[in-house]
């Protein structure tokens, strides 16, 4: 995927796709990063119409992503109306661009934005059922987070900071090894949950606790349905002995 910001013109979007012979184009949204960045943008009104223009004007699917503050249900609905192919919720909890940009400020006067945004699980729950494929990223720390993202409806999960750190510490070989380990362990966790495919995870029960449960209550997300949803599904690998 090529990657541009939401101010880019259609011509530049096409150029980015051509340059990389990309299969898809990502447009990143980073309003809070821009806000904390001393030289950052201060107006975002052009983003929605520009995204619609780019989605109509390039030949590859367009994926809009956040960079670590999350996308709300309302934003995802707006993106669907703009004609994008998928949204990556890019939630809070990993790389924190408010903190990073704040370090470049003197005095660091946006330090209070450290906890801004919503986690990827919160965003996935919030945007569920909007008829737009969702990707999960932001704060993915280990294979269980991958499984959580898939179980909460993401069609794919993305990792940035955790893999970048491995690459910087140990080089390419270490990163390849880490990715292999993640793949093995993701498969092991799927086995433990009785899921033959990643898509099967979307039929496993999910229990939501603590602050995320309160978020769901406020946003009208039905956590009871999630906690019992396997009752209504037919497993793709029914056990011959009829075990649950
Ligand atoms: C060094 C660095 C550079 C990044 N540059 C971009 C970028 O150009 N475009 C983009 O969409 N996201 C960019 N990101 C954000 C990541 O794609 C991702 O959304 C964010 O780091 C949250 O995921 P994480 O918690 O797994 O790190 C960058 C992240 C890092 C750490």
UniProtKB/TrEMBL annotation:
Database matches in Pfam families:
FMN_dh
| Keyword Magnesium tagged | yes
Keyword annotations from UniProtKB, A to Z: Cytoplasm, Flavoprotein, FMN, Isomerase, Isoprene biosynthesis, Magnesium, Metal-binding, NADP
For activity, the cofactor(s) needed are: FMN
Domain of life of the organism in this record? Bacteria
Is NADP included in the keywords of this UniProt record? yes
Question: What SUPFAM superfamilies does this protein map onto?
Answer: FMN-linked oxidoreductases
FMN-dependent dehydrogenase domain sequence ranges: 43-204
Q: How does it assemble?
A: Homooctamer. Dimer of tetramers.
Q: What is this protein called?
A: Alpha-hydroxy-acid oxidizing protein
Q: Which organism is it from?
A: Actinokineospora soli
């Amino acid at each position: 995927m090529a990657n541009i910001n939401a101010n880019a013109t259609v011509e530049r979007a096409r150029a980015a796709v051509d340059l990389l012979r990309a299969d898809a184009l990502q447009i990143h949204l980073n309003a809070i990063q821009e806000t904390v960045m001393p030289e950052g943008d201060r107006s975002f009104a052009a983003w929605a119409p520009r995204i619609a223009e780019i989605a109509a004007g390039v030949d590859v699917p367009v994926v809009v992503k956040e960079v670590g503050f999350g996308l709300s249900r309302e934003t995802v609905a707006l993106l669907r109306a703009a004609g994008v192919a998928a949204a990556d919720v890019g939630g809070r909890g990993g790389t924190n661009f408010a903190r990073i940009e704040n370090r470049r400020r003197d005095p660091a006067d946006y330090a209070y934005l450290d906890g801004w945004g919503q986690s990827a699980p919160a965003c996935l729950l919030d945007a569920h059922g909007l008829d737009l494929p969702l990707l999960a990223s932001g704060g993915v720390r280990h294979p269980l987070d991958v499984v959580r993202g898939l179980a909460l409806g993401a069609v794919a999960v993305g990792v940035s900071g955790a893999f970048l750190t491995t690459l910087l510490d140990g080089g390419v070989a270490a990163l390849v090894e880490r990715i292999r380990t993640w793949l093995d362990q993701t498969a092991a966790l799927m086995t433990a949950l009785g899921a033959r495919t990643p898509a099967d995870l979307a039929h496993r029960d999910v229990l939501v606790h603590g602050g995320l449960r309160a978020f769901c209550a406020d946003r009208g997300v039905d956590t009871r349905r999630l906690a019992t949803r396997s009752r209504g599904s037919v497993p793709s690998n029914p056990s011959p002995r009829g075990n649950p």
